Amino acid sequence: MGQVIFSCQNTGHAFNGGFEAERADLRSIPTGTKVRLHCPFCSEAHEFDLAAARICESPTFCRTRNDCDSCGFAH
User: In the prediction, which pLDDT does 73 show?
Assistant: First the structure.
């Protein structure tokens, strides 16, 4: 199980969405399924396609949600 990572539509920066899933979970979600989240980079709410999300496989939970671009665990 890993943290679900999204990318800001305005800045392109990746951030932790605040919930966990398995890669298989994301693949089983129907195409076009959306989630609306607040972006920590541009302070706007974006609608994200869950099929485009990545999973962070870091062995420890990241306490900050805005350093995913420099982390090698988000795939």
Answer: 60
Rounded CA gap, 57 and 26, in Å?
A: 14
Best CA proximity match to 14, nearest among 51, 44, 39 = 39
Give the number of domains in the chain: 1
**Burial (CB count <10 Å: 0-12, 13-18, 19+), residue 28:** exposed
3 state DSSP class of 63: coil
Task: Give me the domain span that covers residue 11.
Answer: 2-70
Instruction: Give residue-wise pLDDT tens across range 15-51.
Output: 888 888 988 888 898 988 999 999 988 999 999 998 8
Cα separation, 12 vs 7, in Å, equals 5
Q: Note whether residue 75 is domain-resident.
A: no
